[in-house]
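hi! just following up on the protien thing from before. the input was this:
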Amino acid sequence: MKSWQSSGATLMAIGALFACSSEGGGPSSITIGAELQNGPNGPRAVCVRLPVLLGSQSAATTSVGSAFDMDLLALRHNAHIRFPGARNAEAAGRTLSLGQLSAGYAETVTVSGSDGVEYEVLVHSGCSDTSNDDP
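and the predicted 3d structure came back as:
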């Protein structure tokens, strides 16, 4: 009987090893991005990936001429987008949870530039983290 128990334990241990993944785990495939949809300052996009390690952060910024900046800050469990320099910077900013981003988030935000132009910015998850195309 002991050999069956020993064999069973060995099989369970081997099965557990095969179930393990060599990937780091965590929300590493989750991204947040912001894309300028209109305006005289040309196309702008910024994208960051949520980090895997606790305490880590990812950040990116792009300028929309002198009208405002698009700042992204991603932490392990949430992400923040801010629009410094915009007239409505506080109202336009967003903090999004990991759950919102994982489920697929998309919202068009109206940002009032310091130049008097109303800009439309698409804030969304699922961007390509190589899309930072700030010239």
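The first strand starts at residue 31 and ends at 36.
The two ends are 71 Å apart (CA to CA).
cheers
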